Amino acid sequence: MKEKILSFSDVRFTYHTVRDEVTAAEHLTFDVEEGEFVAVIGPSGCGKSTLLSLAAGLLAPSEGVVERKGSVGYMLQRDELFPWRTIEKNLLLPLEIKKQLDPSTREQALSLAEKYGLKDFLQSYPAQLSGGMRQRAALIRTLTFHPDILLLDEPFSALDYQTRLNVTKDVSGIIRSEGKTAILITHDISEAISLADRVIVLTARPAKVAFEHVLDFEEQSDPLKRRENTQFSTWFELLWKELNT
After folding, report:
1. For residue range 139-165, what is the model confidence (pLDDT) as tens digits?
2. How far apart are CA 243 and CA 245, in angstroms?
């Protein structure tokens, strides 16, 4: 049995505005196992990004408990690569910030870059790369300090459709190859089905878990092949119905 690496137990989160008090999450309870890829979907404004901030420890719950084992890497909607630094220097930035950059960690980071197709672009600048390559660089940068959990906040939403399909395949392959635990926030039902082992459907705000589904694609982890699978449309119709209940 796999170990639980992240647990939300009856979590409530309330924030204050100038005029009001808003409850973003209430009775939010779920677990994530080590090595699992979980997608979280829900109505717009339901608190999906708040969930990631709670998971990362950037926010503390107003009530309830968030338990996390290990370190966290956060991948945002945009790559956020520094334009004045080469790709190599962008990849090494987390190690510099954590004061962990030495010949050994540098070699490990560059070996990741080589393994996942960035070797020929290390001396390039972000503006010289395609959007897809930049997102791949952003993921490898996140992996350089070996986080135990990857939090993905709609990381493909800024890409055009064709690039998005290719990048989801790349990113999924890297995450699964490295054996990482991942939580993906997305508005895209198709994206959730094509990537995840399990999909969590949230209610409207205040967010709590409405439905959970384990996706039975017979170990098929290629996002593009999943989209061709006969089960894909069945899952889409079910999740669409649940989101609009």
Report:
1. 889 888 889 999 999 888 877 888 888
2. 6
Residues 6+ apart with CB under 8 A from 67: 4, 6, 7, 9
CA-nearest of 67, 112, 104, 72 to 88 is: 112
Q: What is the pTM of this model?
A: 0.90
Q: Could you tell me the two tokens for 100?
A: 């962990």
Q: Mean of the pLDDT values across residues 187-206?
A: 94
The reported pLDDT for the residue numbered 234 is 95
H/E element, 167:
helix 161-177
Phi, psi of 3 (to 5 degrees): -80, 140
Give residues with Cβ within 8 angstroms of 192, minimum separation 6.
39, 41, 184, 186, 199, 239
**Edge to edge, what strands does the sheet with 198-202 contain?**
72-75, 149-153, 181-185, 37-41, 198-202, 209-214
The DSSP bridge pattern shows strands 181-185 and 198-202 to be unpaired
Q: What is the pLDDT of residue 213?
A: 96
User: What CA–CA distance (Å, rounded) separates 154 from 27?
Assistant: 24
Q: Nearest CA to 191 among 230, 232, 220?
A: 232
Q: Give the model's pLDDT for residue 1.
A: 64
Q: CA 128 → CA 106, 133, 148, 170, 175, distances in Å?
A: 23, 10, 31, 19, 25
Percent of the chain with pLDDT over 90: 59
